[in-house]
């Protein structure tokens, strides 16, 4: 079950919200002035998305290397990966 709480509420209930996420697998959305700004998610969910991001980065690098067999300057790769 997903829960949405205000930032003010999250501050006072952080321990409980973390426990709900960790033990119950819940995703808690935190809002500020009615806009979602952050989330508390089970750590496994974060790790899943980190792995997916790493896989996408590797796939992009392999695609770039296979395209022309040319050297790609670091700043170009960083730009493609959104690091610049």
TrEMBL record:
One Pfam family per UniProt: PhdYeFM_antitox
UniProt superkingdom: Bacteria
InterPro entries the record matches: Antitoxin_Phd/YefM, YefM-like_sf
Biological role stated in the UniProt entry: Antitoxin component of a type II toxin-antitoxin (TA) system.
Listed NCBIfam families: phd_fam
Family in the record: Belongs to the phD/YefM antitoxin family.
The protein's name in its UniProt record: Antitoxin
Source taxonomy: Bacteria, Bacillati, Actinomycetota, Actinomycetes, Catenulisporales
